Amino acid sequence: MGFVMPEDGSDRGRGARRRGIPARSAVRRLRLGALLAAGILGLAGCGTFDLDQVSVPLGATSSPSEFADMTPAQRREHERLVAGYGGSYADPELKALIQQVVERLVAASERPDQKYRVTVLNSPAINAFALPDGSLYVTRGLLALANDTSELSSVLAHEMAHVIARHATIREDQVKQAVVVSRVISDVVNDPDLGALAMQKSRRTLASFSRGQELEADAIGVGIAARAGFDPYGASRFLTDMGKYSELRSTAFAGNTSTTPDMDFLSSHPATPERISIAVANARQYGVPGAGERDRNAYLSAINGMVYGDDPKEGFVRGRKFFHPKLGFTFSAPEGFSLENTSQAVLGANQSGREALRLDAVRVAADQSLSQYLSSGWIEGVEVNTVESLTVNGFSAATAIARGDQWSFRMFAIRFGSDVYRLIFAARELTPDIDKQFRAAAETFRRVSTGEAETVKPLRIKVVSVGLTDSAEKIAARMQVPDRQMERFMILNGFEAAPKLKYGDKVKIVAE
Questions:
Q1: Phi and psi of 437, rounded to 5°?
Q2: Are 299 and 147 in contact (CB under 8 A)?
Q3: Element (H or E) spanning 152, and its range?
Q4: Whole-structure pTM over 0.90, yes or no?
Q5: Between 485-493 and 234-253, two packed helices, what is the crossing angle to 10 degrees?
Q6: What values do phi and psi take at 28, rounded to 5?
Q7: Nearest Cα residue to 2 out of 79, 83, 89, 80
Q8: pLDDT of 259-275, one tens digit each?
Q9: Rounded distance between C-alpha atoms, residue 409 and residue 427, angstroms
Q10: CA separation for the pair 414, 171 (Å, rounded)
Q11: How is 103-123 classified by DSSP, letter by letter?
């Protein structure tokens, strides 16, 4: 969670909105249902292989020399993407391995003359995407989930296939056409609602087309990887692990997935089981499992020591606790909550999916009291008689209750330095006991000392060798994860069932 504020202290304009900060000129009233859809209960959709779905802020964080041959427009797009994913992640050994894999794939592809640039993004998200000019992007979160060179090659070949098939260019043209149609209807027919309906129908058409693109890229990618000498079943194995990881997160953040808002990804990409079965069918055209290179040891060596999960400089989660050493604050969620740090906010939910929270930051004028802010109408359903001023560990604050049709909210606004942090709790039924828990959690918001901040260490992927007395359960117990150590260990290492490890085997764990 970057909590990036505009340089001039305002919260106006597109840059502010893209950073998750409501612009006063654009967000006057926030509907309670929209707040949930914006992320409080949307966590069940996280962790998916979200190819080519990008919405990120502006910025510049990459090496000028590496991308000197880009046009100004390409460079701006590249910088936009890199900044939105926490910058680039530099690791010489990992970069060298990726470059070797790309060179083999290019030589085996339908376009061996096409040039590609690969950027590893400093993000825990599981994502990869491509631009029409051959710029490929893969997050370290995705690299942490992969287990060998064939799985890496399947991801890179899939993205190369999008470039070869001109999918990104076709999509750009389709989107432009849809926008023009909706504007013509709105302006000429003078019916904004009809224009919006036309745009919605166009989006559904585009989504259906995107499903076809994804499956086409899967097929092309498997062929490229196989001709390059990699195991063509790498794609199906990686998609399987990705599906398990997504299911684990869905269960952790919203036990009842029926409460989860419809996610755009689900309407624009084929379901993972479908992709797996098709990927296996594609691979069978090139041989039997194990016929091509996998090289697990080389891959594990390249990712050994790679940062896992949140980068501490952007804040990180440890169990129920969120800690932001750079901004100098911390807070703890109520018992039973799982937290997720995103680029826009810290989100959380309990196992039942009936309670949730969101922490984000806004600018509030210094001469406006926080009680006035909570009553100002930025969110619907505020019960004015519940607004009260208070202090939280020495910081000026205010709290209030807001109610919607299905959810009730306990909201806090806490002034910390020049910013105001909004801690918003949601419950299907806001009982006195639950409200007491929410208040107690808000009281944990506090400043951290310099010394405390300096002790923070990131979690990393650690590759360990199996000892003579080691079992899977024993090694999994070393995983520094909030829960389900064995399940997370199995998914991280691509194990179908509890493995019987052999002496000397290399496995991944997560630890400081």
A1: -65, -40
A2: yes
A3: helix 149-164
A4: no
A5: 160
A6: -95, -45
A7: 83
A8: 333 333 334 445 578 88
A9: 6
A10: 43
A11: HHHHHHSS-TT---EEEEES-
